Amino acid sequence: MIYEVQKMDKIIPLFEGMTDTTITSCLQGIMGKVYADSLENSCSAMAILGDFCFLAGEPNEELALYKPPHLTQDFMIMMPQNEAWCRLVEKCYAEKAKKVSRYALKKDGAVFDRTALQAIVDKLSPEYSLQLIEEELFQKCKETPWCKDWVANFPDYELYSKYGLGVTILKDGEPIAGASSYSGYIGGIEIEIITKEEYRRQGLASVCGAKLILECLERGLYPSWDAQNKWSAALAQKLGYHYDGEYTAYEIWGY
């Protein structure tokens, strides 16, 4: 049997060594859900938020194969805690599992130069405007397929205004690039940056990233960053993060 966990005190130790703040959001009970093989003596646990699934504790095939009833998507990114979990994911999902590399940035090593970040923001061409994602923009992003991930994991603006934060670049009143909260937790956010395809390679992602980091610093929030690819890792380092290494994840197609 797989159980949804409400009380996290016995589950938290299973995630030791996993530093992704998306897990933190789940364990704090703010966003996402946590599942385990037992409510009293858990040996294995799984935290799910959006398209991310984190597997921890003792490898458990039933847990690895469990798809919670509230999930409708056919895609999931699985983050195994160790090599034993990796082998189990490969066994369970076979050809559905695509092994990929992701790139971690240190959570405690970033040194943000506010002057340098502001200089990046100031380079934005006057043909564009830069705005915080407030309620009207939040609703607009929810309804816009290419940028919905800025806000998709927040069921409403009330939760976003409490635990989320985002900025977007507008042209003629329409968003063309932005940086926002994929998830939020007490003390910080997990950054998601997207630029509309026809506006890429113009430095807009750098502007959005720099502005969002500055807004986080003003509010005493940590702007956590985990890189999907080398380009994202390079951008993060340009903005003040320190590289922490490559790790394995699995993209599950037909989840």
How would you characterize the overall build of this protein?
With 255 residues, the chain is of the alpha+beta class. The protein is 29% helix and 31% strand. The protein contains 8 helices and 13 strands. Helix 7 links the parallel strand 10 (188-195) and strand 11. Helix 7 (204-219) packs across helix 8 (230-239). The longest helix is centred in the C-terminal third of the chain and has 16 residues, at 204-219.
- Give the oligomer, counting copies of the same chain as homo and different chains as hetero: single chain
Summarize the helix and strand pattern as letters.
EHEEEHEHEHEHHEEEHEEHE
Strand content bin: 25-35%
Global Rg: 18 Å
Query: Residue-averaged pLDDT, rounded?
Result: 96
What distance lies between the first and last C-alpha atoms, to the nearest angstrom?
19 Å
Side by side, the strands of the main sheet go: 1-2-3-4-5-13-6-12
Count the helices. How many?
8
How many DSSP E strands? 13
- Are there runs of 5+ residues with pLDDT below 50, and where? none
Largest sheet: 8 strands, mixed
Helicity, in percent? 25-40%
Rough outline: globular
- The SS-based structural class is alpha+beta
